[in-house]
Design goal:
Number of domains: 2
Number of helices: 10
Distance between the termini: 34 Å
CATH architecture of the largest domain: 3-Layer(aba) Sandwich
Order of helices and strands: HEHEEEHEHEHEHEEHHEHEHE
Structural class: alpha/beta
CATH class of the largest domain: Alpha Beta
Radius of gyration: 19 Å
Length: 317
C-alpha cells in the first residue's frame, strides 16, 4: 500500500519538473539547520536531480550565498521547497524575492512549497514582484496553496507532491531500528503548532507516550550542536560550509530521523515530514493538522486513500 503510493507520487514529480530543468543548475536556499523535514526535502531534490543529465554548478543556504554571484542566463536556478513560502518565515521569502528580481533572465523553479500569508497586502506585493519574472515556476504541494497562488499570482503554478517522495525507501533501511519503544507523539514546538488542541486526547492506545519533536530540535542535544557548528550562521567557516552541509550534515540528519522514527511502534505526528518519513518507512501513523491547515490540505491532495494513514482534526482543549 505504501510503496504503490510512493511510486505514484514520485512519478508525478518526475512528469511535472523534468521538463523545467533543461540545463546545468544551481540549488539555493538549502536548509543548513535542525529541521529533519527540510533535510528530507533536500535529499529528495538531490535524488531527483541525479536522474537528470545536468550538473549542479553551485549549492548554498541563505547564510552562505554570495551576493555578488553571477549566473549565466543559461543556468537554471532551483530553490528549496518546504513550508516557508509567505510571511510566516520571512527570511526565506525575502531571499527568494532577492534571487527572483536579480535574475530575471534565468529560468527559475521553486520546488514544491506550502503557502501561508498572515498579511494579504504582503501577498499582493510579492505577487507583483514575482510577476516581473516571465520564466518562474512555483510548485506547490497542497491544494490550498495551489488555489491561493492561482488566484493572485500570474506565474506558472504547478500542484506536485513534496520532493521527499523522490527518496528511495531502500536507502533509508540501513538506518532503521527495531520498534522497541511504544508510542511517539511527534509534536512540533514552533509557531506552526495548533494552539489549544489536546493531541493526547486523540491517542487511545495503552502504553507509554513520548511527546517529542525531532531529536535535533530537543534542548540539550549537545551532539547536534557540535555537528551544526561549522554551518551555523555565525560560523567563521562559510567557505567550507556548503561542502560540509552536503557531505556530512545532510546524511547525519537523515540517519537521525530514520533511527528516531523507526524505533517507535505507533506514530502520531503534527509534523508533515513525520508523516512523509513514516510513509517512506512503510509505517502506519496518525496525522494531525498544523496551525494553518497545511497538513490537512496535503493529506487531502496526496494521502487520503492510503490504508494505514489516519488523519484527525484534533479537539479543542
Amino acid at each position: 500500500m505504501f510503496q504503490q503510493k510512493i511510486t505514484e507520487l514520485k512519478n508525478k514529480i518526475t512528469e511535472g519538473i523534468t521538463p523545467l530543468v533543461s540545463s546545468d543548475y544551481v540549488l539555493l536556499n538549502l536548509p543548513y539547520y535542525a529541521n529533519i523535514g527540510d533535510i528530507l526535502i533536500w535529499e529528495g531534490e538531490e535524488s531527483f536531480l541525479s536522474s537528470l543529465p545536468y550538473k549542479c554548478l553551485y549549492r548554498s543556504s541563505i547564510n552562505t550565498y554570495k551576493r555578488k554571484n553571477y549566473f549565466s542566463p543559461a543556468t537554471t536556478i532551483l530553490m528549496q521547497g518546504g513550508g516557508n513560502f509567505g510571511d510566516l518565515w520571512e527570511g526565506h521569502q525575502k531571499f527568494r524575492l532577492e534571487i527572483i528580481t536579480q535574475y530575471l533572465d534565468n529560468p527559475i523553479v521553486i520546488f514544491p512549497v506550502s503557502v501561508h500569508y498572515l498579511d494579504k497586502s504582503r501577498m499582493l506585493k510579492d505577487a507583483q514582484l514575482m510577476a516581473q519574472h516571465k520564466n518562474l515556476t512555483i510548485c506547490v504541494r497542497d491544494k490550498g496553496s495551489y488555489d491561493l497562488l492561482r488566484q493572485y499570482f500570474s506565474n506558472n503554478i504547478l500542484l506536485l507532491p513534496d520532493m521527499a517522495f523522490w527518496i528511495d525507501p531502500a536507502s533509508l533501511k540501513q538506518y532503521m531500528r527495531p520498534s522497541s519503544k511504544e508510542i511517539l507523539l511527534l509534536k512540533r514546538t514552533d509557531k506552526e503548532l495548533s494552539v489549544g488542541y489536546d493531541y493526547k486526547q486523540q491517542i487511545t492506545d495503552l502504553g507509554k507516550i513520548d511527546v517529542l519533536d525531532w531529536p535535533t530540535k530537543q534542548k540539550g542535544n549537545i551532539i547536534h550542536k557540535i555537528i551544526n557548528r561549522p554551518i551555523h550562521r555565525k560560523s567563521p567557516f562559510k567557505s567550507f560550509a556548503d561542502y560540509y552541509a552536503y557531505n556530512v550534515y545532510r546524511p547525519y540528519l537523515i540517519k537521525q530521523g530514520v533511527q528516531f522514527l523507526s524505533s517507535y511502534r505507533d506514530i502520531y505526528t503534527t509534523r508533515l515530514h513525520g508523516a512523509i518519513l513514516s510513509t517512506l518507512l512503510h509505517k502506519p501513523y496518525t496525522f494531525f493538522d498544523n496551525s494553518y491547515g497545511k497538513n490537512k490540505s496535503f493529506f487531502d491532495a496526496w494521502l487520503s486513500n492510503v490504508e494505514g494513514i489516519r488523519f484527525v482534526e484534533g479537539d479543542k482543549g
